[in-house]
Amino acid sequence: MPRPNQSEERRRKLIPEIANAFAELGYRRTTTAELSKRCGVQENILYRLWPDKKAMFIAAIEYVFELSDEIWRGVVGARGADATSAQRLLEYESRHHGEFGLYRIIFGGLSEADDPEIGDALRRVYRRFLGFIERQVEAQSRGASKDGALDPALAAWAFIGLGTVSNIGRELKLLAPDLRARLFREVGGRLLRASSNRAR
Fold first, then answer.
1. Which of 63, 76, 87, 127 is close enough to 83 for a disulfide, judged by CB 3.0 to 4.6 Å?
2. How far apart are CA 184 and CA 94, in angstroms?
3. Does residue 46 sit within a domain?
4. Minimal CA–CA distance to 27: which of 104, 100, 119?
5. Is residue 86 part of a domain?
C-alpha cells in the first residue's frame, strides 16, 4: 500500500491559515515571513511545499472554491425540507454568504489578473463556481417550460453578481446583514423563478 503524500497533507493543513492571511492583508502586503509566522513553521517549510508566494496565493484562490464546494455539497445533500437544492443553497447563502471573508482573496486577485498564472487561476475558480451554480439552476428548472425562462448559464452569472454585490456592501458597510439576507432571498428567489419560467 503506498504511503500518503505528506507534502499534500501538509499543504491541506496550512492552506486555511495562508488563505486567511491573504484575505486579511491582500496579495502585495502579505509576506512569506508573515505566512510562516501564522502557520507556525519556518519559511523554508513553506518553500518546500510551494515554489513561491504567488503559488501560495494561487492555492488560496483555489481554496476559496474548495471550501465553498464542501459547504454547498453538505447543504445540497441535506434532507427533510420541501425546498429544492437551489432553494436550500439560496437560503443558506442569505444567512452565511461572505462570513469567512475569503471573497477578499478573489477581489485582491482581480487586481493581479494581468499576471497570466493568477488570471488563469481566477478563470478556473469562476468557471467552477459557475458550473456548480448552473447545475443547481438546471435542476431547479427541470420539467418546467423553457419558453421565456432565463438561461441557466446567465442565471449563474447573475448569482455570481448577487454575491459580489453583497460582498461589496459588506466591505463598505453599505448593506446591513438583514439587507444582505433580503437581497439573496428576494432577488435570488426571483432569479430562480425566472430560470424555471414560474415568475408571475
1. 87
2. 5
3. no
4. 104
5. yes
Q: How would you write the pLDDT of the chain (200 residues) with one tens digit per residue? A: 555 579 999 999 999 999 999 999 999 999 999 999 999 999 999 999 999 999 999 999 999 999 999 999 999 988 766 788 999 999 999 999 999 999 999 999 999 999 999 999 999 999 999 999 999 999 987 766 566 688 999 999 999 999 999 999 999 999 999 999 999 999 999 999 998 864 43
The pTM (predicted TM-score) of the whole model is 0.91
Residue 77 falls inside a structural domain: yes
For the chain, the domain total comes to 1
Amino acid residing at 121: A
Does residue 108 belong to any structural domain of this protein?
yes
The residue range of the domain holding 135 is: 57-195
Cell representation of residue 55: 503559488
